[in-house]
Amino acid sequence: MRFLFKLVRPTIFLLTLFAFLLLIISIYLVFNDGVAKSNRILGIMHLAGVREELDLLERAKTPKSFMDSEHLIMFLFSNADGNKQLQNSFTMCLTSLFSKASNPQALHFYIAGDVESYYIAKTVIQSIANKFGIHNQILVSYQNISQLEDNVLDIIHTVRQQISSGKEHRFSSPLFYLSIILHKVMPHNISQIILLDVDLVIASDISKLFSLFNNFDQEQAIGIARENQPVYQTTLWEYRKINPKTRVGEPPPKGLTGFNSGVVLFDLQKLRVSSKYNSFLTEERMNALVQKYKFQGHLGDQDFYTLLSFDYEELFYILPCGWNRQLCQWWKHNGLGEKFDLYYSCSGVIHIWHGNCETSLLNYTTF
């Protein structure tokens, strides 16, 4: 027995030592994982909160004359990490914008999307600005949609639920409805902002687009171009069948064609005080409009503006088609070729080319 005990005792000791070492390693791994997670959380908190404070400090140090002339531009930019096509489109858009801008120092960009995409966008913007000799003068701010107040998110979900067909599609994300409540999200000292898609080539000085705010009448609060395809003629087929003499879905210049939200001007101050506009951010009013026009959309915020314009044209300033020259011709080859040119035709100077439907923009670059 003593022999067996002497033989077993070292084995027990080794097993005990091995178990103790495993415990130490486990504690170390858990601790490091916790630190890593904490660092990731702190990084997100920094972007979502501290970044805003830094922007305010930067603005406080900026001469007032510059702040008064700021041109605020928002991009919806998400899921860009690993998406080279999206990154290339954004780079082309920003390069064209800077190449034509007469006062690029006045530009202030807002990026709405996820944290990773914000970092990518900020890097692209700063890199392009440096190429044009504008160093450390461009402000880039971040808007995280997931951190919006609950009452604002509720509005987005309500509108989306009412006007969307219910099927998942490219524009199902709440991000693509953000613009309808910008007047509730942006700081109150900001009165004007322009929303741009990333699949654009800017062929004119962006300050000329901002000057169009001066063309708004007393009630016009949103500047937006007509849809260049008969999209809403087909979407509203049921209403048009019952109302054959309607202007709804008809081509320009007299028809209520519907809108394309690739380029949108927002007078935020007018939207904040417009009881007419804000009344349609409720389930009851929105549902009544949807039922009236038997509407089922799939194009995000532009469906909202289109639907609202059928009853309230006075809220909208119609941008000349040259400020959002859409290149998509999908409907020309899918059943509506006969009437297509009535919607697609656009004469005059082209200031912005829009490569919607993933149309190539390589032939439209001049930089």
Automatic annotation (TrEMBL):
InterPro entries, per the entry: Glyco_trans_8 (IPR002495), Nucleotide-diphossugar_trans (IPR029044), XXLT1 (IPR042465)
Q: Which GO terms describe its biological process?
A: protein O-linked glycosylation via N-acetyl-galactosamine
A GO CC annotation recorded here is: endoplasmic reticulum membrane
NAD as a keyword?
no
Q: Name one GO molecular function term.
A: xylosyl alpha-1,3-xylosyltransferase activity
A Pfam family reported for this protein in Swiss-Prot or TrEMBL: Glyco_transf_8
Keyword Ubl conjugation (UniProt): no
TM ranges: 12-31
User: What are the UniProt keywords, alphabetically?
Assistant: Membrane, Transmembrane, Transmembrane helix
Protein's recorded name: Xyloside xylosyltransferase 1
Say which species the protein is native to: Biomphalaria glabrata
Question: Organism classification, top ranks?
Answer: Eukaryota, Metazoa, Spiralia, Lophotrochozoa, Mollusca
